[in-house]
Amino acid sequence: MNHTDPDERWLGAIVHGAFFLLLGSSFARFLSRDQGGARTGWTVALFAFFCLLYVLGHLLAPPPRPGLPPTRRHLVWLCSVTGVWVVLLVLAPSATWCVMPLLFAGLHALPPRIAVPAAAVLTALVVLSEIRVADGPLNPNMVVAPPAVAAVATAVLVHLQRQGARQRVLIEDLVRTRHELAATERRAGVLAERQRLSAEIHDTLAQELSSQRMLLQAAERVWDTGRGAAREHVRAAAEITSRSLAEARRFVHDLAPADLAERSLAEALGELARRESGPGLTVEFRVDGEQGPLPERVAAALLRIAQGALGNVREHAAATRAALTLTWLDDQVSLDVADNGRGFEQAGPPGCEAPTRGHGLPAMRIRARHVGGTLTVESTPGEGTVVSAAVPLVVKEPAL
User: Fold this and answer.
1) Is the N or the C terminus of the chain less surrounded, counting Cβ atoms within 10 Å?
2) Structural domain ending residue among the three candidates 82, 104, 138
3) Number of domains in the chain
4) Which H or E element spans position 48?
């Protein structure tokens, strides 16, 4: 028996104990009833050899693990010990019931198509041996009992063997499913992280690099005619560079936006409106309702949405005015970013998915969803655009 499983060790101990108990009982009966004649010495030696062969077989040719085919060495041992038992049975009918552990060993190691016929042959030998040593009229139990006991034992062992095979298949399927699930979760995690990185880069570094480029281009255009204006543009680009560096450092360490380090969300939005205001675009900021505390991740998400929306206004809308409105209600906080720019044609009625140009709007939707909120876009060509994000004050985890 396999010695790595406690249940199998326990079962093996019982089988071995039964073998030695039956062997000792058979030998005692032989000495008390069947000994005499020239074959006594040979029979005693055969009893000893049978015992030795049984012990050596389990030490040198152990049975296979459940679900694995038997080794050639184990099959040779099983045939050898069975053959010795048949010879011993001829010399000493008292050894009849020593076959039970061998019957179990065969059923355990051999496939049912071989083990069941082998069990039938061994049972027939037991019946013949019982009839041979019977005294007086034939007892029907000698003919019926061995096949009945062998049939029950064979049915139980074959059932357990097949049930074990089915359980092994189920376990293999479970392990494979767990590995596939782990791989799927890793892929989902990688995708989510890529989306997060894309949104972070788009809403911070990409937007500010775009602003720097516009300011430096403006400085180049007036460099020869207006040195003062050119220096202002360069100074503004340098300020953006400083903010970009701070954002990049916090971004690397996965911290909150730099604007929220020492400010509330309303103060950060007000500072954002001030920064985005300039020649050609005026951004106003307003707070409605009584302000309250917000989770850091909600405040960061709303600030990033405002940055992304204003970046779209500056780059795509050709607007002259924009308004940031932070509204506190009893059960939610909302952020509206409205502009008077060129607008665009939506794919459906207001509030439906807008055309996904680039990463801006998809990134904003992802941010809103990750804090349990929603984002809607209303736009009409020539009439501007309104981006609205609403987040419940009791934040629920987003659905996977």
Assistant:
1) C
2) 138
3) 2
4) helix 40-60
